[in-house]
Amino acid sequence: WITKISNHSSGVSFFMQPSALLVLSRRQASALLSTSCSHCFHSRQQRPSLLQRRTMESSTEKTKVPTSAAKEFVNRFNEAYATKHEAFENQFWGTKMALASTDTTTYSSENLFETKKDMEDLLSNPDVLEEAKLHRSNLDAALGEDGGSSGGGDDEKLGGLVKTLDIIIRTCQCNDMSSSPEAKSIREETSKIESELGMSRNSMKLGYIAPDDDDDDEKNDETDKKGVFIPASSVALRNMVRTSAKESRRKAAYEGLRSIGPFVCSNGFVEIVKLRNKLARKLGFVDYYDYTVTNAEGFGKDKLFEILDDLELSTRPLMEEGRKELAKRYGDTALEPWNLSFMMAGSVIKKMDPYFPFSKSVERYVKSYSALNITYADATMTLDLLDRQKKYSNGFCHWPVCAWVKPDGTLVPSKTNFTSLANPTAVGSGLTALTTLMHEAGHAAHFANIRQPSPLFSQERAPTSVAYAENQSMFLDSLVGDAAWRAKYALDLDGTPIPFEIIEEEIRATQPFAVFALRGMLAVSYFEKALYELPEEEVTTERIQTLADEIENKIQGGLSPRPVLSVPHIVSDEASCYYQGYTLAEMSVHQTRAYFKKKYGYIVDNPNVGPTLTKAYWECGNSRLFLDLVRDLTGKDLSGEDWTDALKESMEERITREKEEYDEAIRQNATTAQQDEQKEREDIDLKMAVKFVDGDLLIADSTKSKGGLLGACKEFEEFVASRIASTETAAE
Predict the structure, then answer these.
(1) CA distances from 690 to 311, 320, 687 (A)
(2) Residues whose CB falls within 8 Å of the CB of residue 535, separated by 6 or more in sequence, listed in order
(3) Does residue 100 carry a pLDDT above 80?
(4) Which pLDDT band, with edges at 50, 70 and 90, does 679 fall under?
(5) Beta-sheet pairing, 396-401 with 207-209
(6) In 3-state terms, what secondary structure has residue 287?
(7) 344, 297, 303, 307: which is closest to 322 by C-alpha?
(8) Whole-model pTM?
(9) How many CB atoms lie within 10 A of CB 275?
(10) Which residues in 105-122 are b (16+ Cβ under 10 Å) and which e?
(11) Integer Cα distance of 96 and 84 in angstroms
């Protein structure tokens, strides 16, 4: 029996608790002396696993790893993962937001790569996986010997321990590369190129050439000069394509978006695609798409495209009819990619714009979530919402600190970073930014309310289902399109709600073409599927660009207003082969909405929404399968039925339904006006602290603002007003 073993060559000692003593053969003890502690979670080269060498030589010998040993392993793993995860996420935020380095922290692609590698080294270490499996096996054995129950609260604690070992095993299996000696080096090479491409994409000279017929007659475009390159983010360019009344300007913005594809392909994306496929095949998968989907969703590419193919076929007639109707209304030129979005709703967006002032967007999101009874469990959120040069060109929500419950029962509250790219002076940006805010805030609420015994349950990478993660946020951002929501929250600066006539005009302009959004989601998934199925010799800059056009024409009926290669997800490691999650999530969004409508009759300002989502979808984290969660809440398997029913709803039926809901909301507004005034005098408590930032600049902090959260919203509103005023002054 051994109570202490010293490795004199390394200066490391092992102390074995009396309850965890092992019977070791002379050979095993000798092997043990050559190791360093497996629980330190250092690199494998420094630390061969202690448990790897515990194979018993006699059939009569038994290895008993008691509960205490499993707890120690789990605790050390949780703390190690949380530390490495936070270091990586801080680098992710700093590089994506183009923050200035400080005396203590340097933001760089090199540090982003190193911190990511450090985190993935832990998750991909085969010794950690083996040790987790051994603890899990010995707990099963112990449960069997004890009759499967220890009684009282011990059962619950043991269940939590088993659950945590299971998620460690699942997560490590998603990252396991031990089956191929080359896999890890391929992964590291890919990550390095991805980091470099990400930094290059952030600093890309993106914008548009002011057209020759430009006459500066559009708001916020006073700086444009004919033939001059005008810097603009991808979000600004997309907004121009949707809202600019001048076709030449829309076309210039579209061509700016098209320039992203050649740029990323010539700055590493071609090699990234090849390396991703090489990695997946080394690990036994068909290709990289199959690899990522299997890890995230628990089923492979073939199963996924059985679902997507059905959706594609069932909605193709709607897409074809929609394109015919658009051409009938406005002529064949309406189908040009730079015209399509504007022809559907461009003029209506301008009429809606006064009712979606960006400066009020945060306050309205806060009030809407409060009415839904959604809270954030003492989370801290950092919001960087305004567009600026070199900032990452897509909204996202990430968690440097994941919410989880420690062994003593204390909650580690989440720390959340999320961003959007709003230009307060651009027509339509308020609606876009508010929708993004409702979406990303949904992610934040979801992950803040996870109550599980490890941070692995509340991190967004595999084995967390993409569809599961997006279901929550897309459900909440869908409210912005409801007439009932707009009756209360789409107000101009004088507090007047948007007239229903404008809502009706939007419905008439967009309802026949609502399927276009679905087809746009499908196009990204079908492109990535085709991309990773290309023979390696065909993975070239030219072929990737022609393939993108081919898929857009096939799935969307023509070139897309948002070129597939401008979608940032396909380049980013954590979001590549991700878009099918939006499609599956949208299916569940409509199914979940139907559930609330059937049970309560309404969704907007329904105080049952928050608690229901928390219990049914949020608290479990990734400990349960997405498809099971949807079935358990809604009472039926996930399908696209409710979504396609919404797409097939006639224009007049929708107008009638939305008008009834709008009128009811207006009546409720009148009866609750006094209560709302009282709430204005009180601080809304979403149980969170919020910091508003603009890059390195701190705008407001709810923990320090007079008036708390709403006070911080007011400070943000004043900052935006000042930004607008300075922009207008500079343009004069």
Answers:
(1) 40, 46, 10
(2) none
(3) yes
(4) low
(5) unpaired
(6) coil
(7) 344
(8) 0.86
(9) 19
(10) eebebebbbbbbbbbbbb
(11) 18
- What the block records as the tokens of 194 is 């991805």
Interval 452-492: pLDDT, tens: 999 999 999 999 999 999 999 999 999 999 999 999 999 99
Dig out the tokens for 315 from the structure.
């909605």
Three-state SS at 594: helix
Contact status, residue 585 vs residue 635, Cβ threshold 8 Å: no
- Specify the residue for token string 């495209």: 305
Helices 270-282 and 541-556 cross at an angle (nearest 10°) of 80
What is the spatial distance between Cα 314 and Cα 630, in angstroms, rounded to a whole number? Answer: 22
Q: What confidence score (pLDDT) does residue 427 get?
A: 87
User: For 498, which DSSP code?
Assistant: P
Long-range CB contacts (within 8 A, 24+) of 52-56: 52/127, 52/130, 52/131, 53/28, 54/22, 54/24, 54/28, 54/134, 55/28, 56/23
Region 356-376: mean pLDDT is: 95
What are the tokens at 409? 């029962």
Sole residue written with tokens 């590089």:
95
**Is the Cβ–Cβ distance between 460 and 469 less than 8 Å?**
yes
CB 490 within 8 A of CB 354: no
pLDDT of 443 reads 96
- Split at pLDDT 50, 70, 90, the class of 389 is confident
| Radius of gyration of the chain from its Cα atoms, rounded to whole angstroms | 27
Q: For residues 135 and 75, what is the distance between their CA atoms, to the nearest angstrom?
A: 13
Q: List the alpha helices (DSSP H) in 511-650.
A: 515-533, 541-556, 580-600, 609-613, 626-634, 641-648
The arithmetic mean of pLDDT across residues 393-409, rounded, is 94
State the pLDDT confidence band at 231, using cuts at 50, 70 and 90. very high
Q: Per this entry, what is the length of the chain? A: 732
10 Å Cβ neighbour count for 189?
A: 15
**CA dihedral for 571, 572, 576, 578, sign (positive or negative):** negative
CB under 8 Å to 531, separation ≥6 — which residues? 273, 539, 544, 547, 570
Q: Estimate to the nearest angstrom the gap between the alpha carbon of 369 and the chain centroid.
A: 19
Residue 28: which of 8, 51, 3, 6 has the closest Cα?
A: 51
Q: How far, rounded to the nearest angstrom, does the alpha carbon of residue 366 sit from its chain's CA centroid?
A: 20
DSSP string, 235-257: HHHHHHHHH-S-HHHHHHHHHHH
- Residue 182 in 3-state DSSP? coil
Residue 301 has pLDDT above 50, yes or no: yes
| pLDDT on residue 393 | 83
d(CA 289, CA 107): 30
> At 408, which amino acid appears?
D
Residue 18 pLDDT: 34
Instruction: Find, among 597, 601, 595, 600, the residue nearest to 616 by Cα.
Output: 595
Strand 207-209 relative to strand 379-386: parallel, antiparallel, unpaired?
Answer: unpaired
Residue type, 453: P
As beta bridge partners, residue 4 has 15
Give the three-class secondary structure for 90: helix
Give the pLDDT confidence of 168-211 residue by residue, as tens digits. Answer: 999 999 999 999 999 999 999 999 999 999 999 989 999 999 99
Q: What pLDDT was estimated at residue 66?
A: 66
pLDDT tens for 40-53 read 554 444 444 444 44
Q: Using a pLDDT cut of 70, give the percent of the chain over it.
A: 85
SS3 207: strand
For residue 691, the cross-strand partners are 382, 701
Q: How many CB atoms lie within 10 A of CB 55?
A: 12
Q: 235 or 502: whose pLDDT is higher?
A: 502
Q: Is 428 left (phi over 0), alpha (psi -120 to 50) or beta?
A: left
Q: What are phi and psi of 672, to 5 degrees?
A: -105, 10
C-alpha to C-alpha distance for 621 and 472, rounded to whole angstroms? 12
As a dihedral over the C-alpha atoms of residue 653, residue 654, residue 660, residue 665, rounded to 10 degrees, the angle is: 170
Confidence band of 24 (pLDDT split at 50, 70, 90):
very low
